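Q: Please design a sequence for this.
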């Protein structure tokens, strides 16, 4: 390690000397030259092999070493968390790096390896630095000691756009301190099927909320992307939509109307916000794989929306055009189709280099087409300052990652992300003097799984589990812990019996259930990437555990830790209190305990509807009016908990909804004001939500659509007038001829504390002819 640091120091000095002798250096090494000139100069010096190498990405050397020991070639077909290259050693990949034939790496998890790879690369002819990407989805949580924030679904439930920006900014600082420059986030897919295991890395079911959170996250990562403190954002997955069976990568069959109204707006906004990388989706869209879809990549993204960044494939998905979609005869054909459709970078694999070079030499792909992609990639590398700052510094890393400010942000974000779903008879907040002995059990009671998907195990002292949080917040209460293990599929009936027996001797029961998401046990998870469900029930003996503990007759609280909504209908009908904590991150346990004992007043609202059962899919708040034309038999169409719903330890009253105009022109604005009063005895934050309903339109419109929201802090007994401005973009839609416009007619304004009709007050205005 000391030898590596010595070499890096020497290399840094060499770069400094080079910078001081710019009169002898090529233009691309001149930091003061315009980036366009630097790109053109460097591109003119590159061989075809070097250009094609810039378009290819590999997994890191340590990743290759570790996985080649434990995996077979057959394992690669079903595992997208791990990889290696059969027949190819880490030494081969290191040699290609020295030759300048690799442009990017992913699955590099330490500063030391990132520096090692850059050092290898600096031995190449042109010394083009690598761009190192990582799935920093909720903080750089795949790396040791980095801050782990709540996952995106929890962040969305806070409706806190400023917090989304702040977390992205802090994540960027931690990534650059680790010498990583590209995050594969934000995931701005609109999640409308709760069976999908990746709901937790999205911002939920609503287009407007996803758009606002996505834009803030892009801006937080990138800013103007002109310093060594910024990272490249990646908006993804374009365009996954709603897979037909809720499984990752399954086909999506969606009309252009649905695409343009529901799924495209976050991408259009992301492009306008300056996102400079975009990842295409695993699946086929209306029969055409997204990775070879010219309509998506060229016609829409570049020509219609003006996207200037580069497009990267998802994990081996170009190759899946051969073995999954069957739209290409071999990998070479798939590469050809993808590049000609607009693809710029390949994640990841061996055959790219040889096949793409052959396609150019055979005249099937013009070298000028390759130049287009390489120019986009080089532009980003210059803008990120990689040519001047290819290495990271250990002292800076240790000062930046998981520092006090970042930990405080993570804790605040987690407090604001936890949704109180039920609180019968005012059980919460708990009275510590009343409940001296408390049972704590369940698979998520004392496990690092609380951090959520896209996390790797962290030092134990850095993670607050529910049990640890309770012991921290109420040190004088006796918490009787019964460990149910981490695996819901293999719970021990004897441990369930033990918990039931102890519940009878306790004053209160806290059961922590949900899903298992940790990636280092890839095949044993029940939620997360490539881990989808055919139902929404609690797995294994969890429901049995809840029912039997409830039968003890003692007050029982359910804490749900999951990346997607679960159908906990029985618990909702019987238990005293339910908290949905989503995947709350490294301070999840502390924040949950603070809410249970009233140190924090919950304020979060659901970013996804919670159905009663899998039979209610699709269960979204903004359905079309005819969706429930005929009621279901033997049940109800009403969800268990609707989008935007969440309780507090106080109550809020909405009154006096006033519109400043009742008639406007198509280009006019309406100001809506409403009085919100905190009727309780505790201070709190209410998330006021504004919905619009287009009453009569040329094409069927949803019953309501979220168009604005505000977090409003109110002291006990305080009232505030909250104002919203309804602009034409909040009224526009695609009419029957697919023209985007504002139609004349009546519009209903609904403002309240959730999407539920009974939680809203209404007013109406008219757009004149």
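A: Design:
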């Amino acid at each position: 390690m000391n030898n590596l640091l010595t070499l890096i120091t020497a290399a840094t000095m060499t770069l400094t000397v080079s910078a001081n002798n710019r009169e002898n250096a090529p233009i691309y090494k001149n930091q003061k030259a315009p980036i366009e000139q630097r790109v053109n100069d460097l591109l003119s010096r590159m061989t075809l092999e070097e250009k094609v190498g810039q378009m290819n990405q590999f997994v890191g050397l340590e990743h290759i070493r570790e996985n080649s020991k434990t995996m077979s070639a057959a394992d690669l077909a079903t595992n997208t968390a791990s990889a290696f290259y059969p027949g190819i050693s880490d030494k081969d990949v290191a040699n290609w790096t020295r030759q300048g034939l690799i442009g990017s790496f992913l699955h590099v998890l330490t500063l030391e390896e990132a520096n090692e790879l850059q050092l290898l690369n600096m031995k190449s002819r042109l010394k083009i630095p690598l761009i190192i990407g990582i799935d920093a989805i909720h903080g750089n949580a795949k790396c040791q000691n980095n801050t782990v924030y709540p996952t995106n679904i929890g962040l969305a439930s806070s409706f806190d756009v400023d917090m989304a920006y702040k977390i992205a900014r802090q994540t960027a600082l931690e990534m650059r301190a680790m010498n990583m420059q590209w995050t594969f986030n934000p995931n701005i897919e609109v999640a409308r099927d709760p069976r999908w295991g990746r709901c937790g890395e999205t911002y939920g079911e609503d287009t407007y909320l996803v758009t606002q959170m996505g834009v803030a996250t892009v801006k937080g990562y990138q800013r103007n992307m002109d310093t060594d403190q910024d990272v490249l954002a990646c908006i993804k997955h374009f365009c996954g939509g709603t897979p037909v069976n809720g499984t990752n990568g399954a086909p999506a069959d969606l009309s252009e109307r649905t695409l343009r109204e529901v799924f495209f707006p976050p991408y259009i906004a992301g492009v306008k916000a300056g996102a400079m990388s975009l990842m295409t989706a695993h699946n086929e869209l209306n029969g055409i794989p997204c990775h070879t879809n010219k309509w998506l990549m060229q016609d829409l993204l570049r020509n219609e929306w003006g996207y200037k960044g580069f497009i990267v494939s998802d994990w081996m998905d170009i190759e899946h055009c051969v073995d999954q979609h069957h739209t290409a005869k071999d990998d070479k054909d798939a590469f050809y189709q993808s590049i000609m459709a607009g693809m710029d970078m390949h994640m990841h694999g061996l055959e790219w280099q040889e096949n793409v070079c052959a396609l150019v030499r055979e005249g099937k792909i013009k070298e000028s087409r390759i130049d287009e992609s390489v120019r986009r990639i080089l532009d980003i590398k210059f803008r990120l300052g990689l040519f001047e700052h290819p290495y990271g510094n250990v002292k800076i890393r240790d000062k930046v990652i998981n520092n006090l400010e970042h930990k405080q942000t993570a804790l605040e974000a987690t407090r604001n992300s936890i949704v109180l779903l039920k609180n019968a008879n005012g059980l919460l907040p708990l009275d510590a003097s009343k409940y001296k002995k408390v049972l704590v059990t369940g698979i998520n009671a004392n496990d690092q799984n609380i951090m959520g998907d896209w996390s790797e195990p962290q030092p134990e002292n850095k993670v607050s589990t529910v049990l640890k949080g309770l012991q921290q917040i109420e040190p004088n209460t006796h918490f009787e812990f019964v460990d149910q293990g981490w695996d819901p599929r293999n719970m021990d009936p004897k441990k369930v019996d033990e918990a039931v027996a102890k519940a009878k001797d306790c004053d209160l029961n806290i059961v922590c259930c949900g899903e298992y998401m940790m990636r280092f046990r890839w095949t044993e998870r029940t939620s997360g990437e490539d881990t989808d469900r055919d139902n929404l029930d609690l797995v294994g003996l969890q429901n049995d555990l809840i029912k039997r503990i409830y039968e003890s007759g003692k007050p029982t609280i359910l804490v749900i830790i999951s990346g997607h909504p679960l159908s906990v209908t029985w618990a909702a009908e019987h238990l005293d209190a339910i908290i949905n904590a989503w995947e709350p991150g490294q301070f999840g346990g502390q924040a949950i305990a603070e809410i249970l004992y009233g140190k924090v007043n919950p304020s979060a609202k659901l970013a996804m509807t919670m159905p009663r059962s899998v039979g209610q899919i699709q269960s979204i708040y903004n359905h079309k009016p005819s969706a429930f034309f005929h009621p279901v038999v033997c049940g109800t169409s009403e969800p268990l908990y609707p989008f935007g719903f969440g309780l507090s330890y106080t109550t809020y009253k909405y009154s006096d909804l006033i519109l400043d105009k009742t008639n406007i022109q198509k280009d006019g604005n309406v100001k809506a004001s409403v009085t919100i009063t905190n009727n309780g005895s505790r201070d709190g934050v209410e998330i006021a939500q504004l919905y619009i309903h287009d009453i009569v339109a040329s094409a069927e419109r949803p019953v309501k659509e979220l168009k604005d929201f505000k977090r409003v802090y109110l002291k006990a007994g305080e009232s505030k007038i909250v104002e919203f401005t309804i602009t034409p973009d909040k009224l526009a839609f695609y009419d029957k001829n697919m023209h985007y416009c504002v139609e004349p007619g009546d519009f209903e304004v609904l403002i309240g504390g959730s999407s539920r009709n009974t939680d809203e007050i209404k007013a109406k205005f008219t757009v004149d002819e």
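Q: Thanks. Anything notable?
A: DSSP finds 23 helices and 26 strands in the chain. Residues 404-628 form a domain with the Rossmann fold fold (CATH 3.40.50.1700).
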